[in-house]
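retry 2 of 3: previous attempt timed out while embedding magnesium ion. Reduced batch size to 1 and resubmitted. Inputs unchanged:
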Amino acid sequence: MNAPAKSSKLIKGATGDWEMVIGLEVHAQVTSNAKLFSGASTQFGGAPNAHVSLVDAAMPGMLPVINEECVRQAVRTGLGLKAQINLKSTFDRKNYFYPDLPQGYQISQFKSPVVGEGVVAVDLDGGESINVGIERLHLEQDAGKSLHDQHPTMSYVDLNRSGVALMEIVSKPDIRSSEQARAYVTKLRSILRYLGTCDGDMEKGSLRADVNVSVRKPGAPLGTRCEIKNVNSIRFIGQAIEYEARRQIAVIEDGGAIEQETRLFDPNKGETRSMRSKEEAHDYRYFPDPDLLPLEFTQAYVDELKSALPELPDEKKARFISELSLTPYDASVLVNEQESADFYEAVLGALADRRRDGKLAANWVINEFFGRLNKESRDIAASPVSAAQLGAIVDLIGTGTISGKIAKDLFEIVWMEGGDPRALVEARGMKQVTDLGAIEQAVDEIVAANPDKVAQAREKPALIGWFVGQVMKSSGGKANPQAVNDLLKSKLGL
Ligand code: ADP
Ligand code: MG
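retry 2 succeeded.
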């Protein structure tokens, strides 16, 4: 199931090439209204301690009650990662002291997580794709937040996040470059967003990663890893890996050895630095939480969730390729973000013949539409052109009513002024001229006026392009280019 990553990007050191080995532990906040073991709200941005129940504040004698919705979301995520769903799993206490962890332990899953091995297919630039193995996914509680900058001599604590459900998604050490790591997190985030199990908002901390990095000579056994904690953007994940791999190579080539340790990434300096070494590592003294029964599901429950899963990016991409003949690249661009895929599918919905025009629609969505949004730094929701309007434009091209060139003008008008594309084409006389008589007249005029070019074209048939251009120009871009081409060929005797 876990085809190893193919494209390793090697780093040249003083002693030869080095390969980086990377495994990620991604913490994804579960989309749910209430916390994992209490009814308190998970809403972001409340006043400090506005969303804290007695359970979250760990008042003596309070008992956790499992939130069924969080469990359902974890199982759905496991299914989306093509992973083993464990019909029986248990919660454990992970004991450590933290000012923002009032229980003195975190409820997590250690020995038997809810989800076992799975796989994520990751597309890389240049058309290659790799499989990254998933080791496990378990449910755990988030901690609160200490605030050290509110008072000169005291620290405050905000427990709003305390008890919020997280899924920890642990990858196998299958990743071989920072590009692969970034592509993996991007893909994982996309799957979570399609599933609706995590909003993937890294700015709000809904998705963050612990990044494990080691280096080795190609083919050598795995090296000792360092773990960079809590990296909260995809760009920083890439930077942290690049820095850390080079740091480790320098240490080893200097005759030193890598000690397993936990490090922090400093985005301002672009460096990682030591936080704690293995000797100081916590012994968490895990044991099964006596307040919680094991989680048990029936296979029927799992099967029902599986059959109700939405179409995920890989399947959508395959369908776009097989049904609509899109290139793998175009299909990827369209499925990466759910919003893009939804928009494209809405455009398809406005076409009379999606099999004929699906590919044309993809070109228009990717080039004209996304291009224009990019230029104006807008997202799809803020677009002045709707999917129905763009679909109508594509339909007008597909049926031969307007030329591709005129369609660009029409798109511009609809973007700036709005309106029904079909009505605009009628009202402004933008229809393509397919009337052969009219085109023939224009062709004859151009041919008659340019005897020298005609002679050249007979020698060098590629010059027909110049004639096509002239005829198109004289028709205001409205002549049907295919008809122009055909007529010119016969008139020039090519
Ligand atoms: P821990 O709790 O000690 O962090 P986990 O099992 O939760 O251990 O996570 C280990 C992570 O480290 C996984 O993502 C795994 O792929 C990765 N990993 C394990 N060995 C190596 C290695 N030699 N180099 C890089 N990453 C590694
Ligand atoms: Mg870990």
